[in-house]
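REQUEST
  id: r-88c1
  op: predict_structure
  target: Catechol 2,3-dioxygenase
  payload:
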Amino acid sequence: MLDHVGLAVSDIARSRAFYEAALKPLGIAVLMEVTPEMTASGGTALGLGRGGKPFFWIGDNEQPGQGTHIAFAVDDRATVDAFYAAALAAGGTDHGAPGLRPHYHPDYYAAFVLDPDGINVEAVCHRQA
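RESPONSE
  id: r-88c1
  status: 200
  body:
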């Protein structure tokens, strides 16, 4: 089990707006902000999560990496669809519309978008319809 994931972003304000909108259907919101004055890293970091626990972090103190991928597990296919719509409306780029991916397993229903830095973000439901 993962405790948290962190991604480097090139523009913290742009990425904040994207992730706040794209992850809202998943019940994930900004819970914590670490400013440059609070750390030695010199950058801003935002902790997103739910239930009082930030588990997804974005920060602007490092160079964004190629090939980065993050997948959020959700409880139903409608939430996958809502994530995809919200992410596109927030400026994300289509990287795979909602649908079954039977090459992973018969009930793998997912959608993929690229965030403003080209990071591949996925919402996936493993349950039957």
